[in-house]
């Protein structure tokens, strides 16, 4: 019998990453294996996750907002952050979502668009996992077209008064602070209401954050709403550097980058678990892995996993050097998520009946990726973004 190799060893995937990046990923993988892996199936079935406990542990490791500079953040490369997302999503997409929303949405918004007071107040706490953040953009009737948001922010003297509702907000029921985007009465040069962002402590009067129940996907993630009923805020709550949709869209681009890397972890975990299971499962007096159809499935998954991992690496390198454009992020998310989801679906069949239980990860990963396919820009939106880049024609317009 030949030597058994892991999915990463066959193509030498790890060799394309720096020693420092590999070492950090190894430390995080060890912590996750020791603290989360054996419990994640139960968290998924129970529809919850110990967000505060995990946030503090991940904060001690320096994972939260790790790609940001200063204010208690580690200031790592984008690629190292991507590898962290890969390890987190190898456990569960819900865990990566917790970190992604914290660092790439809430913290990034404050870091990039906030005042010094806002940065100093919130970022050190959030980096340490002592405060959990969320990001309020999506609304009950407004998803892919954020310009259609209905949440309003009106001036009343020197204060702002916010009214509206946000939907599908990761972390909101357990959050300490939220970044919320709203339309103001100020008009741009096209006569449209200008969007502004606000940093709001969750205990502010008029704020409610009900939990969304009965999810079939991303169950090991706490998802809720944000309901704003005449929420009065001082002028200092507004993100001073964000004016228009460029603010929230820049945050989404940051989060999408983490997804590009993250889903490769789900694919790797599904493939490794399938290799291990088929090597020990005996059928017709021989291991399931000895059958040609099994090996065909494993080989196909290996090829797909290797391709998306190298694509993620390339996008990380762009981000760390010359910069990455929105259409490049769209290409990454479109391809990696769809491919990872198909890998997990195909491999689930190798587990037979056991594959539909929480004991083995491929089906859980596949179901989670149905949500990842939708959030931070739906699959179709990224297709249209790339179509516009290739043809010069905006298919979003009427």
Automatic annotation (TrEMBL):
The keyword Transcription regulation does not apply. Residues 19-130 form the Acyl-CoA dehydrogenase/oxidase N-terminal domain. This is Acyl-CoA dehydrogenase family protein. Its cofactor is FAD. It comes from Brevibacterium pityocampae. Belongs to the acyl-CoA dehydrogenase family. SUPFAM superfamilies: Acyl-CoA dehydrogenase C-terminal domain-like, Acyl-CoA dehydrogenase NM domain-like. It comes from the Bacteria. Residues 134-231 form the Acyl-CoA oxidase/dehydrogenase middle domain. Keywords: FAD, Flavoprotein, Oxidoreductase, Transit peptide. InterPro entries: Acyl-CoA_Oxase/DH_mid-dom, Acyl-CoA_Oxase/DH_mid-dom_sf, AcylCo_DH-like_C, AcylCo_DH/oxidase_C, AcylCoA_DH/ox_N, AcylCoA_DH/ox_N_sf, AcylCoA_DH/oxidase_NM_dom_sf, Glutaryl-CoA_DH_mitochondrial. Gene3D superfamilies: Acyl-CoA dehydrogenase/oxidase, N-terminal domain, Butyryl-CoA Dehydrogenase, subunit A, domain 2, Butyryl-CoA Dehydrogenase, subunit A, domain 3. Signal peptide: none annotated. Residues 243-390 form the Acyl-CoA dehydrogenase/oxidase C-terminal domain.
